[in-house]
Write a structure and sequence with these properties.
It contains seven helices and five strands, in the order βααβααβααβαβ. The two termini are 21 Å apart. Helix 3 runs antiparallel to helix 4 and helix 5 packs across helix 6. The protein has a single domain, classed as Rossmann fold, CATH 3.40.50. By secondary structure, it is α/β, with parallel strands linked by helices.
């Protein structure tokens, strides 16, 4: 049985007007108990909502369609330790990743979750991270 950390791009499909049907179908078949989101992705969604007009509608959609339906995992001490190791590793290889992506990957790794994303190019560089492309 697989458990998934839903990346920001997957979560955003729940509130986008133009939804990717592949993502929506996969979410519909995955029991809620196996769906997780990180506090980092939630922060990214609120940031995006604050740029939109009207922001209040998007914030309400985040709360009703995402936060109410998935388990939220924080960026905790274990994730912070993993993040430090990942970031230094990636920089030594000359392949730095965005801070938010590394934080999300760290949360997935320490919680033994598969990362569901459309951003395979970035996340496939993270050693040990299981990644699934939900957009294809």
């Amino acid at each position: 049985m697989s458990f998934y950390l839903l990346d920001t791009d997957v979560l955003s499909q729940l509130i986008n007007k133009r939804q990717n049907l592949s993502v929506i179908r996969k979410l519909a078949t995955l029991p809620a108990a196996r769906q997780f989101a990180s506090t980092i992705s939630i922060a990214e969604l609120y940031y995006g909502a604050s740029l939109a007009a009207p922001a209040l509608n998007f914030c309400q959609a985040i709360e009703e369609k995402i936060i109410a339906n998935v388990q939220i995992i924080p960026f905790d001490l274990k994730a912070a330790q993993q993040y430090g190791q990942l970031r230094s590793h990636q920089e030594r290889l000359g392949r730095p990743l965005a801070m938010a992506d590394l934080m999300i990957a760290s949360i997935a790794l320490v919680n033994h979750l598969i990362l569901a994303t459309g951003n395979i190019r970035h996340f496939s560089q993270v050693p040990g991270l299981q990644v699934e492309d939900w957009f294809s």
